[in-house]
Design brief:
Layout (H helix, E strand, L loop, with lengths): L2 H6 L3 E5 L10 H14 L3 E5 L1 H8 L6 E4 L15 H9 L4 E5 L9 H10 L3 E5 L3 H9 L4 E3 L17 H9 L4 E4 L5 H9 L4 E4 L1 H4 L1 H15 L1
Parallel strand pairs: 1-2, 1-8, 2-3, 3-4, 4-5, 5-6, 6-7, 7-8
Helix pairs in contact: 2-3, 4-5
Length: 224
């Protein structure tokens, strides 16, 4: 296993992202969120977009999982759908490049994306939603898989929680994985480790106060 993945073993990775329209949608603010996460004990960061990766790389040496989100009319795949985007993320300082490896129509093959990422000097993280997708990603040469897209594809289990069963399937299949998706509390993060995760990614519950506020406001509204 690579030195980067060794650094992340058993540790927390914080996703620092802000959607368009968010008051936090600024590369400088994202870099501050990244530094706050580092100060709190994060061992790695998951960062979306070229400008944000560049801004975060300038202020920290923590491992960065870089990705893009690109809406395309020809495919439902939107996390780093092309090799050009993948290569650019590596050039800007991403140690790991994450991409959608789901079994859906895609502009480029998983094999080609992995080869491009490796040629650019980074590790390839395949975001998957099912066990067969994880198996296919490893066969294509991915270095690690993430449960990022579980529950977000038509063929994966529809859930409002993390996909604990998928984690068990990956562990029992001997597949190393990073847990990500709907892990909204420290208890969830710890539970993911007990289900066999190599590392855990948490985003909204740490770095998106607008989202967290909706949880509390909704709970009060429903309770009243």
């Amino acid at each position: 296993m690579s030195a980067v993945l060794d650094r992340l073993r058993g540790r927390l990775i914080v996703s620092c992202q802000a959607n368009p329209g968010s008051p936090l949608r600024d590369p400088h603010i994202i870099s501050r969120l990244a530094l706050a996460a580092q100060q709190g004990g994060a061992a790695g960061l998951r960062i979306q977009g070229f400008e944000d990766v560049l801004a975060v790389r300038a202020v920290t040496d923590l491992p960065i999982i870089g990705l893009t989100k690109t809406d395309r009319p020809d495919t439902p795949v939107y996390i780093t759908p092309t090799s050009a985007e993948a290569a650019r993320l590596a050039e800007l300082g991403s140690d790991i490049v994450a991409f959608d490896a789901t079994l859906r129509p895609r502009p480029e093959s998983v094999v080609h994306l992995v080869q491009t990422i490796h040629a650019a000097g980074a590790l390839a993280m395949a975001d998957i939603s099912t066990l067969p997708e994880a198996q296919a990603a490893y066969e294509a040469g991915a270095d690690i898989v993430g449960t990022t897209l579980a529950g977000y594809t038509p063929h994966s289990r529809a859930l409002t929680t993390a996909d604990w069963l998928l984690m068990d399937e990956l562990r029992e299949g001997g597949l190393t994985f990073i847990a990500e998706g709907r892990l909204n509390s420290p208890q969830d993060a710890a539970r993911a480790m007990r289900h066999g995760a190599h590392a855990v990614v948490v985003g909204s519950a740490i770095t998106r106060p607008d989202v967290i506020t909706t949880w509390f406001a909704g709970a009060l509204r429903d309770g009243s």
